[in-house]
Automatic annotation (TrEMBL):
<dbReference type="InterPro" id="IPR050177">
    <property type="entry name" value="Lipid_A_modif_metabolic_enz"/>
</dbReference>
<dbReference type="InterPro" id="IPR036291">
    <property type="entry name" value="NAD(P)-bd_dom_sf"/>
</dbReference>
<dbReference type="InterPro" id="IPR001509">
    <property type="entry name" value="Epimerase_deHydtase"/>
</dbReference>
<feature type="domain" description="NAD-dependent epimerase/dehydratase">
    <location>
        <begin position="7"/>
        <end position="223"/>
    </location>
</feature>
<protein>
    <submittedName>
        <fullName>UDP-glucose 4-epimerase</fullName>
    </submittedName>
</protein>
<dbReference type="Pfam" id="PF01370">
    <property type="entry name" value="Epimerase"/>
</dbReference>
Length: 317
């Protein structure tokens, strides 16, 4: 019997590339799509615009399951004149176009990588399986609309849907704000973040990949939505201290009260930055643990060490 493969979209991205590598190391047949101009895994094909018009029929031949990682991602400095339309074109129309063709092709399971941001930007209590969505920006709204469209689309199709909502993902090769923080810590730059008593959930790349792999085949995962984290929520201050240790550069953190930072950020029009640094955003992964029997295999300090090692190898010690 010919082995059927797993199609991974977004294979040039942070999560997609790691997933393709892990599947390959397990001896599992992988088909991968990646954006034009990006470094692509061996054998990856490049789709056209990831919108509602691309023909996936050729790519779906011989495919058993799909992990849809590709997305127009959230950015702090949006340049598009109509960001919601831009997000919808890729994250909603593109997702539903792929899923619709996957259902017609008889794909067994469709795993959609969504975002915890569909639930909001944090609250007094941890988000859990029963939290009502409350997206606050165009990216989050587009992810929620994709989730809703997928649930409607699969009714009566025979294709199983799994949705995973990760918080911030970190690991070797991480970019954006996490990488910027590592640069600052590595240079010994004092940061005014030593007095923050919040709690944030993060997920190591290895832990997210482990859950995705489990969701590809676990019978109980079908028709479910899962939250994921490392299971060890930390304050911003403690997070930076541990990251500094991993880098071999003890973090130089000034004990500035969080309320001062929030007022200063508001004055500069940077409320979103203050919210991410000073606010809490926790997820309760009890449902994921209990329904799937899943436990994060990699501890926070171990994941930070591997992240730091990769950073130091690339940027020097």
């Amino acid at each position: 019997m010919t082995e059927r493969c797993c199609l991974v979209t977004g294979a040039s991205g942070f999560v997609g590339a790691a997933l393709v590598e892990r599947l390959g190391s397990m001896g599992r047949k992988v088909c991968a799509s990646a954006r034009a101009g990006a470094v692509k895994p061996s054998g990856a094909f490049v789709p056209g615009d990831l919108d509602g018009a691309f023909d996936w029929s050729g790519a779906l031949q011989g495919v058993d399951s799909v992990v849809h990682c590709a997305a127009r991602v959230h950015v702090l400095h949006e340049r598009d004149a109509d960001p919601l339309s831009a997000f919808r074109a890729v994250n909603v129309d593109g997702t539903l176009n792929l899923a619709r063709q996957a259902a017609v092709a008889g794909i067994r399971r469709f795993v959609f990588i969504s975002s915890v941001k569909v639930l909001g930007e944090g609250a007094e209590l941890p988000y859990d399986a029963d939290t009502r969505p409350a997206p606050l920006d165009a990216y989050a709204l587009s992810k929620l609309e994709a989730e809703q469209g997928l649930r409607e689309l699969i009714r009566g199709s025979g294709m199983e849907l799994v949705i995973i909502r990760p918080p911030l993902v970190y690991g070797p090769g991480v970019k954006a704000n996490f990488l910027r923080l590592m640069h600052w810590l590595h240079r010994g730059i004092p940061l005014p973040l030593g007095g923050i008593d919040n709690r944030r959930s993060f997920v190591a790349l290895d832990n997210l990949i482990d859950l995705i792999l489990l969701c590809l085949d676990h019978p109980a995962a079908a028709a479910q939505t899962f939250l994921v984290s490392d299971g060890d929520d930390l304050s911003t201050t403690e997070w930076l201290r541990r990251l500094g240790v991993a880098l071999g550069r003890p973090a130089r953190l000034l004990p500035i009260p969080a309320s001062w930072l929030e007022r200063g950020a508001a004055w500069l029009g940077k409320d979103d930055v203050a919210r991410r640094l000073c606010g809490s955003l926790q997820v309760d992964i009890d449902k994921t643990r209990e329904l799937l029997g899943w436990t994060p295999p990699v501890a926070v300090d171990e994941a930070l060490r591997s992240t730091a090692v990769a950073f130091l190898e690339e940027h020097g010690r």
